[in-house]
Amino acid sequence: MSEEVTSSRANKKELWEWGKALGIAIVLAFLIRTFLFAPFIVEGESMETTLHNSEKLVVNKAIYYLQDPKPGDIIVFHAEQTRDYIKRVIGVAGDTVEVRNDELFINGKMVEEPYLAQHKEQAKAQGEPFFTNDFPPVQIPAGHIFVMGDNRLNSHDSRAIGPVAVSTVVGRAEFTFWPIGGIRITK
């Protein structure tokens, strides 16, 4: 056998190996993006100061195959046909949620919301009597959650759209990765 034939076979074998590796990488990337993690871009100011407009974050899509959303989780869900929202879970199925005098109550018990402290101070400084307007008790039906943005004065959430079906939840926000200086775990 000549050197040209041997060299041609080696090149074809190497090309085949590269093709397989590329194919496997594409399939793995598709599976990871579809079932495990996905990037998400924050649009708007409804989650300020926890999350900021145009920040990019990673959403864990697999977590809710293992457990249900729980209060405090920051989630992404399909709010409209072409638009996803990012909000904080406030209550789950069976809970009764209400706000009185700027205080959140779940099943009649006041709930601390430390992530709102800065907002409440700013609202008071600007002469706003309340950061979260009162709303009457809302019973959350089975298969649903109640969500609100951290920037309560600028958030279109369950107070307006009602409880959100758990089936529309994409996943839980895990960490921001852009801008680079703002990398952090979301809580």
From TrEMBL:
Entry keyword annotation includes Zinc: no
InterPro entries recorded: LexA/Signal_pep-like_sf, Pept_S26A_signal_pept_1, Pept_S26A_signal_pept_1_CS, Peptidase_S26
Compartmental location: Cell membrane; Membrane
The protein's Enzyme Commission number: 3.4.21.89
Pfam families per record: Peptidase_S26 (PF10502)
Membrane topology: Single-pass type II membrane protein
Start and end residues of each Peptidase S26 domain: 15-178
Transmembrane annotation, as ranges: 21-42
Keyword Transcription assigned: no
GO-annotated cellular components: plasma membrane
Active-site residue numbers: S46, K87
Main location: membrane
Keywords, comma-separated and alphabetical: Cell membrane, Hydrolase, Membrane, Protease, Transmembrane, Transmembrane helix
Enzyme class: hydrolase
Example GO BP: signal peptide processing
Record Gene3D superfamilies: Umud Fragment, subunit A
GO molecular function, one term: signal peptidase activity
Reaction catalysed by this enzyme: Cleavage of hydrophobic, N-terminal signal or leader sequences from secreted and periplasmic proteins
Family under the similarity heading: Belongs to the peptidase S26 family.
UniProt cross-references to PANTHER family, sorted A to Z: CHLOROPLAST PROCESSING PEPTIDASE, SIGNAL PEPTIDASE I
Protein name as it appears in the record: Signal peptidase I
Top-level taxonomy: Bacteria, Bacillati, Bacillota, Bacilli, Bacillales
